[in-house]
Write a structure and sequence with these properties.
CATH topology of the largest domain: Alkaline Phosphatase, subunit A
CATH class of the largest domain: Alpha Beta
Radius of gyration: 22 Å
Pfam family, one: Sulfatase
CATH superfamily of the largest domain: Alkaline Phosphatase, subunit A
Protein name: Arylsulfatase
Order of helices and strands: HEHEHHHEEHHHHEHHEHEEEHHEEEEHH
Helix content: 25-40%
Strand content: 15-25%
InterPro entries: Alkaline_phosphatase_core_sf, Sulfatase_CS, Sulfatase_N
Largest sheet: 9 strands, mixed
Distance between the termini: 60 Å
Shape: globular
Number of strands: 13
Keywords: Hydrolase, Metal-binding
Family: Belongs to the sulfatase family.
Length: 500
């Protein structure tokens, strides 16, 4: 028996991927995608079928993971880089103070880029960070050459190599080509290689918290050729296009990485979809590689595992791409927990329909580790939803709905859902949408004018007004939603000064 087991505290493994849709799991019924290792985690663990990212882009989503807070509390309600991260209580910080050896490998997307956020050590690959590569006024110590560990590692093996060598834009969801170097040099493999090395060099006298944070399947869509081959000739499903989707808007003439919308040539879109699915299977196999190594080190059955994504990818749904928008492809994420040592008494193979969110990760992992949850945390521990003894029961104390939002210029929006219905309000135009997710999970019909839905719409509109009450933007006076108020990407209590 090793020293960690003697302490009686489990290791904690958080696995996050970037921009993976909720439906891209074969165990969830996807007709094409192959995810055998994630399927096994779900088959022997618990899968949450209604997991969401309330602010579905990289920066605010990670704020929810780090702090366990809603976007109203952590203050990042849109995407904005270069705003300092000064949170006092963080998930790795609390675990470190409790005696855990804490390590992040991969993407953090905080500012400054090498802010430890409570970790003892980080090995960083955030992908293409625009503010580090393009802003020449920033201090030299923040240049991407110096903040990115993967780039340094790659250049030791391939002199002069860079992340832009393939000519693919880091935010384009419509262009793809295969990885051009050895598979072991791919960023996905690098995260796992370094994570396995952490198992070697960790402090054996402490339990560990490891965050394996992958950049893929976020663009660039660059899977190794062997994985692209799996899908190039597959019968790929057509993206759903709702009766509300724009089809004649001038913005749709050609794809725009700025607006995230467009009519993309079918051949190009099909290649991008194949590459996206290939990246997911590549990730799955590499996650399996790490789990095998974890078992070889004798730690698999002493480790609690949580897998999720920071947000989704629209991938052509309704002629839309990327993330940030309030639709299922963007906001709905995979979420799996597993406890190989059966410490927590989970119902193996269960699927929970309760609405969970990224803010629930911090309290869940702290509780699993036996570490007190700070009062600043607003999320809830998910374990009671997954216990065998509670199978089939509805927890009345669990959240009844989730409020999501994203500041994005004219497309700024707010939404509320219970996983069965969704109401959306675009704050700059006043446009409303309502979807019955039980009978219309792909959001094909906007029921906002349907007579038999008006009572439910009024209910959700009131719920949203309650959520927005007191917000500094002035979105509601308590009796109505007020259109046209200037959206903020970061609330003033994060900046420390009021935004004008």
């Amino acid at each position: 028996m090793n020293s960690t087991e003697n302490e009686g505290r489990p290791n904690v493994l958080l696995i996050t991927v970037d921009q993976m849709r909720y439906d891209c799991l074969s165990i969830a019924g996807h007709p094409v995608v192959e995810t055998p290792n994630l399927d096994e985690l779900a088959r022997t663990g618990v899968r949450f079928s209604r997991a969401y990212s309330a602010t579905p882009t990289c920066v605010p989503a990670r704020a929810a993971i780090f702090t366990g807070q809603s976007q109203r509390a952590h203050g990042r309600v849109g995407y904005q880089d270069s705003v300092p991260w000064n949170y006092k209580e963080t998930l790795p910080g609390e675990l470190a103070q409790a005696g855990y050896h804490t390590q992040c490998i991969g993407k953090m997307h905080v500012y400054p880029a090498r802010h430890l956020m409570g970790f003892h050590n980080v090995m960083l690959h955030d992908g293409y960070l625009h503010h580090n590569r393009n802003n020449h006024s920033i201090p030299v110590q923040q240049h991407y050459d110096q903040v990115d560990d993967y780039v340094q590692w790659l250049r030791e093996r391939v002199p002069g190599a860079d992340m832009i060598d393939l000519g693919l834009d880091c935010n384009s969801s419509t262009v793809a080509r295969p990885w051009h170097l050895a598979e072991m040099q791919h960023p996905t493999n690098w995260v796992v290689t370094q994570s396995i090395d952490f198992l070697r060099r960790r402090d054996p006298g402490k339990p560990f918290f490891l965050w394996m944070s992958f950049v893929r399947p976020h663009p660039p869509f660059d899977p190794p050729q062997a994985y692209l081959d799996l899908y190039e000739d597959a019968d790929l499903p057509e993206p759903p296009v709702g009766d509300w989707a724009r089809t004649e808007d001038p913005e749709l003439v050609g794809y725009s990485p700025i607006t995230g919308r467009g009519l993309v040539p079918k051949r190009r879109l099909r290649k991008a979809m194949a590459a996206y699915y290939a990246l997911i299977t590549h990730l799955d196999h590499q996650i399996g590689r790490f789990l095998q190594s974890l078992n070889e080190y004798g730690e698999l059955h002493n480790t609690v595992i949580l897998f999720t994504s920071d947000h989704g990818e629209l991938l052509g749904d309704h002629h839309l791409f990327r993330k940030s928008l309030p639709y299922e492809g963007s906001t709905h994420v995979p979420f799996i927990v597993n406890d190989p040592g059966n410490r927590l008494g989970l119902k193996r193979g269960a699927v929970s329909d309760s609405v969970v969110e990224l803010r629930d990760i911090m309290p869940s992992l702290l509780e699993a580790a036996g570490v007190p949850v700070p009062e600043t945390v607003e999320g809830k521990s998910i374990w009671r939803l997954a216990l065998a003894e509670n199978e089939g029961e509805i927890d009345p104390a669990w959240r009844q709905h989730l409020h999501g939002e994203h500041a994005q210029g004219a497309q700024s929006h707010h939404w509320v859902t219970d996983g069965k219905e969704k109401y959306i309000w675009f704050s700059q135009t006043g446009e409303e949408q309502f979807f019955d997710l039980v009978h219309d999970p792909k959001e094909l019909h906007n029921a906002i004018t349907d007579e038999d839905c008006q009572e439910r719409i009024r209910h959700w509109r009131m719920v949203l007004m309650q959520e927005l009450e007191g917000r500094e933007e002035g979105y509601t006076d308590g009796e109505r939603l007020i259109t046209g108020k200037k959206p903020l990407t970061v609330l003033s209590h994060i900046h420390g000064i009021a935004q004008k």
